[in-house]
Amino acid sequence: MRHKLILWDIDGTLLYSGGVAGEAMRAAMTRVYGRSSDNERRAYAGKTDQQIILETFPDRPAAELLSQLDVFTATYLDILSEWAEAFRTRGRVLEGVVDVLRRLRAEGVVQSLLTGNLAPVARLKLDLMGIAEFFDFDSGAYGSDSPRRIDLAPIAAARAAQRHGRVFAHADIVVIGDTPNDIACARAAGARAVAVATGPFSIEELRTHAPDAVLPSLADTGTALAAILAE
Ligand SMILES: [Mg+2]
Q1: What start-end ranges are recorded for coiled-coil regions in this protein (predicted)?
Q2: Most buried residue, 112, 137, 218, 219, by CB count within 10 Å?
Q3: What distance in angstroms lies between residue 177's CA and the mean position of ligand 1's atoms?
């Protein structure tokens, strides 16, 4: 039994949503908050959903925007549920992911999420892609917990400790993600950072942020396991 806590990012790491989740998010923002006065369309990768809302409406007070977070979350879930078929058709689980999740489960590690997605949205995405069974959702941290991704690793570590009745040493926590923000998040918590270049950042770009390991993808199961478990 290995006492490790593996925290997965979702978008660009476990799956691609084929643009469907981003469209659902924008539709939900328009429905709840109205049109943004800011015409610049920003990149979402590595950001929390709360951060995306704040950046989309920069001229409105954060407290006002976030006071409607529950309504926003319900609306986003409704829209993404309506678009489930498009999500399944246009999206996909990334190459090698299921094998790596399976092998880690066999190792007896705790696997959860560290993602900018709002918690129920994270669950819906993984459900729709058929990989929800691998995750202990209550040991993770989500975009619903804070607008700042850097806050999320300690939240996940505390939840996992509470749930499993043991403290996970910093060195036994692994954060896997596709952006420099994921690496920074691991660093801030003293966790191991594994970067995968299956999102918008190349191996070279990710390497400049000094992760403990960087992989082109998770397609090579043996290499991925060695990078994640530090063996
Ligand atoms: Mg990502």
Answers
A1: none
A2: 218
A3: 6
Among residues 35, 56, 89, the one where a domain terminates is: 89
Show the tokens assigned to 118.
């709002």
CATH number at residue 111: 3.40.50.1000
Distance, CA 176 to ligand 1 centroid (Å)?
Answer: 9
Kindly report the pTM of this predicted structure: 0.94
Q: What are phi and psi of 35, to 5 degrees?
A: -75, 145
pLDDT higher than 80, residue 21: yes
The model's pLDDT over 131-148, given as tens digits with 9 standing for 90+, comes to: 999 999 999 999 999 999
Report CA(38)–ligand 1 centroid distance (Å): 24
Distance 9 CA to ligand 1 centre (A): 5
Check pLDDT > 70 for residue 104: yes
3-state secondary structure of 97: helix
Verify that 158 and 63 share a domain, yes or no: no
Q: What is the DSSP letter of 67?
A: T
- Pairwise CA distance, residues 98 & 96, whole Å: 6
Question: What pLDDT score does 2 carry?
Answer: 66
Task: Please tell me whether residues 80 and 101 are part of one structural domain.
Answer: no
